[in-house]
Design goal:
Layout: H1 2-23, H2 27-32, E1 39-45, H3 47-53, H4 64-76, H5 89-95, E2 105-111, E3 114-120, H6 127-137, E4 148-150, H7 153-159, E5 169-173, E6 178-182, H8 185-196, H9 208-215, E7 220-224, H10 228-232, H11 240-253, E8 261-266, E9 272-277, H12 281-295, H13 306-309, E10 310-318, E11 321-328
Antiparallel strand pairs: 1-2, 1-7, 2-3, 3-6, 4-5, 5-6, 7-8, 8-9, 9-11, 10-11
Helix pairs in contact: 4-5
């Protein structure tokens, strides 16, 4: 009996910890828990945080002009840099009843097999209304509530020219307050299964949860899983002369080892954090000084120096990660947008 009681206590403790952990996840952690495991790059926007930062009190059903004014301000502050639907925000709210003006967060994921957009709508959203909106827009309703609403390219392009092709197919997941979309019906089904918890999610990949922990609660972020940053931000995008120059600078900095994951995150105050994940703590320690040196040096393949736009405020190795905190030198202009496209020398492999 004593042994059975101990087992029950352990089970209850573990179950309680899991529930507590889920209840205290940051929005970006919540999003990564619903993104398909095959995702290589995830672009995240905390729309509720963006609205708070811009003091945009839009209510539950803002009109198109209000939405587009909000998006203009979000763009000017670079807070919409990671969004895939910011340009169509007005049309989405007007036609579908959801979008950046009311959503809690957005996650756009890209994989070898396809791409999908995940939108977390407010608690209490009437999904019957969302379904009626899709039906009124011309989408073919699924047989099941969690099935795929079939729109297609011709329908979406005819609704509004600003609407992204990724809205061609839609799944409504009322139980988790999620809207999942894609430009491919087959891939959307997989993405919806991941969002529902019936398929593995990207945060189960090695290093992804650690990256999410380190970036905290950003307004916008990009996360590269595995070694995809080595491809996406590669110096191979530069010309031969710049590649040779980059190799020389890396050698002078002390050399680097390949990334096992990368995240760039922007806080509402526009400060930037870059987190590089490595195989182990020793690798992180070895990469700290070279990566920090490269982060304040010449921006080979881009022009000028990273230090022209950013001040490296702090650098440190924490566990298997190198964490670099940057402060923009200008109070306006683009911050996250200036870094998330390659080549980026301090993210080299």
């Amino acid at each position: 009996m004593a042994g059975l009681a101990l087992v029950l206590l352990v089970v209850l403790a573990v179950g309680g910890w899991v529930l507590w952990e889920r209840a205290h996840r940051t929005p970006v952690q919540e999003a990564l828990d619903h993104v398909p495991a095959g995702a290589l790059r995830v672009s995240f926007t905390d729309w509720r945080l963006v609205r708070e930062r811009l003091d945009a009190d839009l209510g539950d059903s803002p009109d198109r002009d209000e939405v587009e004014d909000f998006i203009t301000r979000a763009y000017d502050s670079d807070l919409s840099a990671a969004s895939s639907i910011d340009e169509s925000a007005g049309a989405l709210q007007e036609i579908f009843g959801f979008g950046p003006a009311t959503a809690r967060w957005e996650a756009y994921s890209q994989a070898r097999g396809g791409a999908s957009m995940l939108l977390r709508v407010p608690d209490g959203t009437d999904f019957d209304v969302l379904a009626d909106n899709l039906r009124s827009a011309g989408y073919k309703a699924p047989e099941e509530d969690s099935g795929v609403w079939n729109g297609g390219p011709d329908l979406v392009s005819g609704l509004d020219p600003t609407i992204s092709p990724e809205l061609q197919y839609v799944v409504l997941l009322e139980d988790s307050s999620l809207v999942v979309t894609s430009d491919r019906a087959g891939y959307l089904r997989k993405a919806a299964d991941a969002a529902s918890g019936d398929r593995a999610s990207v945060d189960e990949k090695q290093g992804v949860s650690a990256l999410a922990d380190r970036i905290g609660t950003p307004a916008a972020a990009l996360v590269w899983a595995d070694d995809f940053a080595c491809e996406d931000l590669a110096m191979s995008q530069a010309d031969d002369e710049d590649q040779s120059r980059a190799e020389k600078l890396v050698r002078e900095a002390g050399g680097v080892t390949p990334l096992k994951g990368l995240a760039m995150a922007m806080e509402p105050d526009r400060t930037l954090r870059v987190v590089a994940h490595f195989e182990d703590g020793d690798s992180a320690e070895e990469n700290l000084r070279p990566r920090a040196r490269l982060a304040v040096g010449e921006a080979v393949g881009r022009g000028g120096s990273f230090a022209d736009d950013f001040e490296l405020a702090r650098s440190r190795a924490l566990g298997s990660e190198v964490v670099l905190d940057f402060e923009p030198r200008s109070e306006s202009g683009f911050v996250l947008s200036a870094l998330y496209d390659g080549p980026v020398l301090f993210a080299t492999c």
